[in-house]
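Hey L., structure's done. Input below.
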Amino acid sequence: MYWLQFLKPYHKLRDKEIEMLSLFLNKRHELSQKITDDDLLDTMLFDKNIKDQIREEMNYSSHQVFNNMLSSLRSKGVIVNGKINKGLIPELTEDSNNFKLIFNFNINEARLPTEKDS
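Output:
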């Protein structure tokens, strides 16, 4: 959850959306301990049984409210083609006790305007 709070200026999700995404990320991490194929991992993550577990953890009795929140995550680019946006998945190892956020910018040479351009 700290990871998503840290990235809040980037993703601009509401607190409940952050809670849902953090549960999906936690479940994804658990599954990744047993499943090494990323495509299979993403397929399993959005399986009905996993979604039901997350819905119960969030104390949503209504499937409609849960599905609306999933739709919101899709419309915000968090879930794309049945996969969580890779930019929101922290790279953790079994012995991780911290995380890094690295910005990688491409710098294009641009000419600054001069007085002649005015």
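The longest strand covers residues 79-80. The chain has one domain: 2-105.

-- N.
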